[in-house]
Amino acid sequence: MDLIHSSEYQLMLIQLFRVSLDNQLFNTNGATYSKIVVLSRSICTINSHHLRHGLFDTNDRQTDGQEEFNSSHTSQGLLQLEITAFSQLLKGRTNFERDFLPSSKILTFTSLLSEIVNIRAFHSICSYKCSTGTLLPPPNCLKKSGHFSSYFINFVMYTTQFYRLMVRHLGLCRLLKCVPVKYDANLGKIVSIDNPQDIKIFRAQCIISLVYIIAMFLNLCMGPLTVPQKFQGVTFFGIYVLLLSCKWNYHLDIATIQVINSFVQFEKSLDKGQETLKISIQSKLMVFLLEILHYSVTGFAGVFCLLLLDPCFPPLILSMSRHCETIKWMDFGPEICILVFDTWMAAQAICAGTMWCFYVLFVGISCILNYLQILSSKMAHAQKLVEHKLCIRTYRQVNILEKMFNGSLMARISPAVITVIPAMQIISQYVSATMHDQIAMPGFLI
Predict the structure, then answer these.
(1) What contacts 172, CB < 8 A, 6 or more positions away?
(2) Per the domain annotation, does 439 fall within a domain?
(3) Hey, which residues does 277 pair with through a beta bridge?
(4) 232 and 124, same structural domain?
(5) I need a surface site. Which of 145, 149, 378, 424 has the fewest CB within 10 A?
(6) Counting beta carbons within 10 angstroms of the beta carbon of residue 435, is it exposed (0 to 12), middle (13 to 18) or buried (19 or more)?
(7) What are the backbone dihedrals phi and psi of residue 373, each rounded to the nearest 5 degrees, phi first?
(8) How many CB atoms lie within 10 A of CB 217?
(9) Does one domain contain both 98 and 203?
(10) Per DSSP, what are the bridge partners of residue 182?
(11) Dihedrals φ, ψ of 107, to 5°?
């Protein structure tokens, strides 16, 4: 306990907290957060004044004048020493204790320091405030330590970059009636469809798509296909499974549209303060990618052309017939109807599946990361207690968004993406390496 009450080492621990904030070594684990609170209460005693955690205690009504902080302890040299020490620790230097600590204090200090480093609570530790209303170093110290080189941050916003693309894609989906949502121009947000006929059409499409995929699976397992054809058909089967998993919403769950609307509402209420925001390269690349993906949705027409060239292409319906090689497109017959049906199935599956995969999964990840970047920038410039309270409130909002985002994906979209896509890549590479001479063109290229 002598070490804990040593003002020099108390200050070093607090400054290490400061630097650890900028290295973002945090998560929101409740157990580890309680540990860091207990540890902080033990070490944050300087000149007989405790740094009380006022931002989480609703009964805390202290003023900044009640929390005097001895400025003699905040010398620039000591701050630079602590920043250097912690940066070396982050780089994995084994001689950290020898270089920066007296040998008599190594064991006790190392045990305390390991608690700090291993505990990954969020930036809420900044709620322990001193006379300046902040536990973070002032912005000039942060700039000198290299953690923030400028006040400019890059941003990726749903409302400014992606919303118009999503509304455009949604218009194509509504044309095919393959999603249970629509854009309400009066409210300016995505809402569930309320037309009973549209709901029946969407549910019928879900059932038909499920039966269609089951028929594909049975064709691959028991149909008149050779081994190369089965491997070739597995990739198309995987694509349809992935798209149906993203599209499936028979019970009209509103979780995904709640996520999109919450992103938009959060960005409207997000106060950017004095920060200068600019479009990042990440944002530009994501917009460019979504533009390409939007026009690639028209690739369902390729199914029509493919069947015209090869009616036996697995695992589509015509390949179930043993006489598919003799099909002629000169006369109107059931083959034409099946061709149109396969094309329609591909169109509604691609449009609906990519809607949620692109604009919830891909865009959502970019936006969540950007919100954390904006929050980190705000914390770096916060000087007053009220500004830190706003940062904590913003973090809690981002935390709620993140939980909603994960909850909307974990049932169908995320499991399908992380299992089907790697499986298709493995199978495709295996077929390309071992059966390239057994699959005729254009099937091999596809």
Answers:
(1) 297, 351
(2) no
(3) 153
(4) no
(5) 149
(6) middle
(7) -65, -45
(8) 17
(9) no
(10) 191
(11) -60, -50
